Amino acid sequence: MHELFTVLPPGEAFATFGRGCSPVDRSEIVPLEAALGRVLAVDVPAHETLPAFARSTMDGYAVRAADTNGASEQSPAYLRLVDDVPTGVVPLRSVGPREAVRTHTGAMIPPGADAVVMVEDTNQTGDEIEVLAAVAPGEDVLVIGEDIVAGALAVPAGRRLRAADLGGLAALGVTQVTVWAQPRVAILSTGDEVVPIGAVPGPAQVRDVNATTVAAVVAQAGGIPVPCGIAPDDAAQLEAALRAARDGADAVVLSAGSSVSVRDLTAQAVARLGPPGVLVHGIAIKPGKPTVLAICSGTPVVGLPGNPASALVVAWRIVRPLVRLLAGERVDADGLGDERELSAVLDVPVPSRPGREDFRPCTLARSADGALHATPVFGASNLIFTLIRADALIAVPLDRSGLAAGETVRVIVP
Amino acid sequence: MHELFTVLPPGEAFATFGRGCSPVDRSEIVPLEAALGRVLAVDVPAHETLPAFARSTMDGYAVRAADTNGASEQSPAYLRLVDDVPTGVVPLRSVGPREAVRTHTGAMIPPGADAVVMVEDTNQTGDEIEVLAAVAPGEDVLVIGEDIVAGALAVPAGRRLRAADLGGLAALGVTQVTVWAQPRVAILSTGDEVVPIGAVPGPAQVRDVNATTVAAVVAQAGGIPVPCGIAPDDAAQLEAALRAARDGADAVVLSAGSSVSVRDLTAQAVARLGPPGVLVHGIAIKPGKPTVLAICSGTPVVGLPGNPASALVVAWRIVRPLVRLLAGERVDADGLGDERELSAVLDVPVPSRPGREDFRPCTLARSADGALHATPVFGASNLIFTLIRADALIAVPLDRSGLAAGETVRVIVP
């Protein structure tokens, strides 16, 4: 196959690719305490109403609000203390006219009462309560169903579960949840010059950095990295390794050399994996242009450039949203929009060439007024140690020939 | 102990507390593939120089740059092709004057050559290479040590390891790293009205939401949550439960009711755990004011409010930076400054009362121009399901009586 190199902008490339990808269709049941970061597979409705009983939100006295009408420091209302209801205790009697029951934050409101006068607005002498401020009905009372009512949607399917979501489920007594299985992502490195990281490279050889970085990106995005080793630059062996990698995987990520001959070899091997084959051959992104995106008999395949820094940038831009999509999360069509995209004020100008999305490593710092500032890191963007010195990447849009100092720019925190 | 309620702003509260906390002093050795998100305990220097050999960054011809002086389409330079060096192969001969060696992206540059002419700027006829553009010395060559030189700091101690850091370590052949042990954080709930999430609450009882949410915040911050159950509102039993929780823990987080009597009980039990005891009693934050921060015989103790939403907000604001600090990460004195703090444009005004940091649940959305917009979520901020509907929290500063529509505000993505 001759390399056509139909280069697409990254958003368009992901959209083309993502349309052919669907979430894994395997779900599993996990205990709530193991569900952090997992993606909910089904809507979870509330099967209870919360709170299940009216609760006080203050220390004070449960009263009939009408009995405090017009009360003030100058003209207090006087009520008779008839009970004290601690938290966790069911009131034994109701609150009648001109009566008050001592209540505590979180305690059940007795029948008859419809408001709480906070203790700071009262004086108590024996069983006489002097009320120094009027309260409205409902004041400082959490009413039944104020948090959620039975039948309402508690947490929606597709939600990557956060602390608050788990809290809401715990409140409802949900102790296990049905989540999507984590997508298994096979990771294959290729290249005659590549050796495992535990090996001592011979002359002209390099260690397999991409297996490590891609696995980290996959894991962070909620996938399970499946290491598949290193294949040589040989058509038959590469194809065999790709087929083995695909076996049992929900996606395959391979990294290959960036030379044209190796890219051709890779694209051909990917094309032979199954239809429709290669969808995108080249992305208008720097670093990372020589990227291949394919769907082969239903399995998404990403061919990353061999250069470790380029591979990592494309892993962030393409593999991360792919894994989130496979994991059952809602992902924007262009693959952007996760919460790790920030805005920052650029400290120095950044030159760029229009026609490609340029990712420049930068440090981030907050100024005294709280504004986030981005400063490009010295060093070539195709070196892994430039990325190590960086906190984030400045994304120079496709249509811009550079960014000006003082401009608010988009930064991506990997 | 009488409750003094010396309420401090959150930043000052964390600073007072954090000064008494030190990172865990236990380290462990983990394989590189298990090191994502762990905090490096020692500086890792490069023990090798990378790249170890000069490499081509393009497909083309390795040449002596001087031989291309003045070359152009109109007046090409002519060189003789003497070799082809694929990636992973050691060149057998050097490049002499007016000679060229075919090279490939990532391949070793032969001795004698000091630049690469990319293939697009050449024509080849037999062993004659026509060079259509001059190249400068070093052009399209990655020189020895351009990524890192032996002896330089590769990754600094205190770094929470990211994909790029692991990649740099992999490139150097570092297959295991010394990281700080993850801090063990004991989580204790208290309250006569609180039952485990698997139980059916009786009348006036509620489920223990905080054990779940606090564990999630601890885990996300890099700690190991250690569940310690529920203690009743009884001085002796609470103290015994606190002592048991502290045993083997690097920190204790308890959540207690928010009524004054229960808060007093909790503060007294914490004070008896050891000197110096309670440092902060009350934080100027909404929700979450009734928070206790203590150091007891060297162990940090956080007393959260019992209300689940309040407890979660304080867990984000105080427990998260505490865990990061204990985990060996560098944390700002005020506990802020992690990457989950964003700026957004506020869509509608938010009223607030000066004198406290007000955290308002909001949704986030990106407008067509890429700007992030924050819209407050309808519902009381002390309800857990309000937090579930939210993407983030708008932080209204202490000194502001509300925020205006259109203002750029600080939001915290938990």
| CATH-scheme architecture of the largest domain in chain A | 3-Layer(aba) Sandwich
What oligomeric state best describes the polypeptide chains here?
A: homodimer
Main sheet overview of chain A? 6 strands, mixed
Structural class of chain A: alpha/beta
Mean pLDDT of chain A: 93
Count the domains of chain A.
Answer: 4
* Poorly predicted ranges of chain A: none
Strand percentage of chain A, roughly? 25-35%
CATH names the topology of the largest domain in chain A as Molybdenum Cofactor Biosythetic Enzyme, Chain A
Strand order of the largest sheet of chain A: 7-4-6-5-9-8
Q: Could you tell me the radius of gyration of chain A in angstroms?
A: 30 Å
Instruction: Indicate the CATH class of the largest domain in chain A.
Output: Alpha Beta
Which percent bin holds the helix content of chain A?
10-25%
Describe the model:
Two copies of one chain form a homodimer. The first copy, chain A, has seven helices and 26 strands. The first copy, chain A, has four domains: 10-26 and 182-326, 3-Layer(aba) Sandwich (Molybdenum Cofactor Biosythetic Enzyme, Chain A), CATH 3.40.980; 27-50 and 146-180, Molybdopterin biosynthesis moea protein, domain 2; 55-142, Beta Complex (Molybdopterin biosynthesis moeA protein, domain 3), CATH 2.170.190.11; 341-412, Beta Barrel (Beta-clip), CATH 2.40.340.10. In chain A, 54% of the residues are buried. In chain A, helix 3 (209-220) runs parallel beside helix 6 (308-326) and helix 4 (235-246) crosses helix 5. Chain A has helices at residues 10-18, 163-171, 209-220, 235-246, 260-271, 308-326, 384-388; strands at residues 27-31, 44-45, 55-56, 60-63, 77-84, 99-103, 115-118, 122-125, 128-131, 141-142, 153-155, 176-180, 184-190, 194-195, 206-207, 224-231, 251-255, 276-281, 285-286, 292-296, 299-304, 341-346, 357-366, 372-376, 392-396, 408-412. In chain A, the strands form seven sheets. Chain A has a six-stranded mixed sheet, with no helix packed on it. Chain A has a six-stranded mixed sheet with strand order 16-13-17-21-20-18, sandwiched between helices. The first copy, chain A, is α/β, with parallel strands linked by helices. Chain A is 19% helix and 29% strand. Chain A is elongated and about 95 Å long.
